[in-house]
Give the backbone structure.
Amino acid sequence: MAEEVQGQTAEESDSSESSEATIAVHWREEGYYQPPPKFIGQANASDPAILGRFAEENFPECFKEYGDLLSWDHYWHTTLDTSEAPFWKWFVGGKLNASYNCVDRHLEKHKNKAALIWVPEPEDVPHVVITYQELYRRVNEFAAVLQAAGVKAGDRITLHMPMVPELPVTMLACARLGAIHSQVFGGFSGAACGHRIADSTSKILITMDSYYRSGVVQDHKVKADEAVEAARKEGTEVEKVLVWRRFPGQYSSETPMVEGRDFFVDELLADHLGAVVAPVSMPAEAPLFLMYTSGTTGRPKGCQHSTGGYLSYVAGTSKYYQDIHPDDTYWCMADIGWITGHSYIVYGPLALGTTSVIYEGTPNYPDAGRPWRIAERLGVNIFHTSPTAIRMLRKVGPDEPAKYDYHFKHMTTVGEPIEPEVWRWYYKSVGKGEAVIVDTWWQTETGGFIGTGLPALNAMKPGSCGPAALGIYLNILDENGEPIPQGSGKAGNIVARNPWPGIFETIWGQPERFVSTYYAKYNKDPDSKDWHDWPYFAGDGAVQAEDGYYRILGRVDDVINVAGHRLGTKELESSALMVPEIAEAAAVPVIDDVRGRAVEMYVSLKPGIAPSPEIEAKVKKAIETDIGKIARPQNIWIVPDMPKTRSGKIMRRVIAATSNFADVGDITTLANPEIVEQIRHQVQNAKHARGEVPRELTEAEEAEIKSFGSE
Ligand code: WTA
């Protein structure tokens, strides 16, 4: 065994010249798919001249085109101010209000057009249409409530709300006053919310008493009490908790309202019916919101997004990449608790005056046909979701889309690399071969898409996000900052060479961490005021094909180093997914004294398929064939389900810990914590039986395993 392994090592380890950033890349090149002529005919960006307008010689003025999509109270005098590099300021001198731009300015032409269509999870309850006029009313009235509570421009307000229309109403009411909202994903615990309250020193928490999730009414207000307690421990005292009611006229939570602290929003609103609150004119660089994202360790990072730059960028990218026209019905199935929902459910679509669908529940409730019934019923023609949701729907209902009469012109994928097999199902089954797919690479930090193709101008290539977005100049660098040429087959760290209007302004309260995490790596002169000296380090590994398209391999720390070969987890998983029986796959490292690390592969099967040694063998064979013997997993574990976060990402650190007999750590944020023990039992019993119980891990090894994979 050891000999065989060492034989491979010798044979395949000629990577001595490869840098730290080099990840083994063995992707097979995929063929192109062309956008349908019907789509091209109506697209917002169908003239290739747009590429010239956003060419580097026109930077930064090219972004005037995005800024001009908004209504400004005062026009800006400086498009990009670099005087405090890398704290970029966009559209300096400009003043505007985000709520005015997303609501008021549409009234003249589209007063009675649906702004939001809310689909509650129970299917026997009708959907709710909120017109722009109605949205205007609600935003104003709630802004009046906030004003009466003493809220003013610059205050931080934490929101911990589910997927209900009251969430965008609350966000827009904050924006109307120039207050900074910080929405914490509703599925997060009270404690997680409390840390974020404390980090942003919010005095007001806005929540809802309950919401539906998978057919069950969840008590949500209880988390507000936990959040207030957690924030208090960190020195922040929440003064007011405003509680929306999920069911009008009744309180659907077990926890008592705290006298003097907790208030029902509907009772407060009663004093402000018909109120009109003038939108506060904010400087372009004033913060619009904070969105927390987890770093690998320590304090969460409150990404601070600007008013003018951010809103321009999400409006521009919604127009050209989502191809949103005012008469489209657009549905993004993400949660507004994540950046995708902020940018591409609320701010981008509403800035363009479209109809944005909000769905309360889980995609497969009560069955895997639900999304397609919603699409059919509402006439959705633009659909937006993540690879995880696509994999799940493919697993539980591969033939469901065909049963429904809906027609998408456009579909988006976001959040993780999508395996070509899964992409093809999305294209053929969900899109019925009629829709373009845009694969959008970006981050909480970037505000909007930064790597993706223009749907009418760039052919699709499964698994690749496409070229850089308009006005973004991407590059792939090795550890020394040397560019890795396109088409070389080598991967490295993807960077954006330039700033753009949607880039976050700083980490709330942690400016040094902002510079050290995102800019220090490739900056050679910390005093430079020239943007060319400040490439943005995204922390993702990527490879650029001959045609200029980028393929994102995942976070740079999501790699398994087998005998000196850095294997991308996504690459391994994509290969496993080529086996027809496989629905989901997750690769993790196990400590191996000969090879450093070995690969273990966890897979779940499509419905109706029984686990068998044949399937295991097929997965091994696929990986050996696609990538090489070096990558052959030591074990394939066929499991009933993967541990996942509430947003659906597989928690690789939990399965890595299981494979290595390490502590699985905090699993309270999992959507399905019960699966962890089941998998542990299965895997560790089998390992005992096979005599594969590892030696005790060193401290460093344990730390690596427990933080494996981004969350
Ligand atoms: C990953 C979500 C491949 C990437 C908008 C990034 C992707 C992280 C893609 C950010 C994509 C996002 N292809 N990988 N199209 N989109 N990622 O902050 O690793 O939740 O750094 O923002 O997701 O996740 P975040």
Observations:
- The two ends are 35 Å apart (CA to CA).
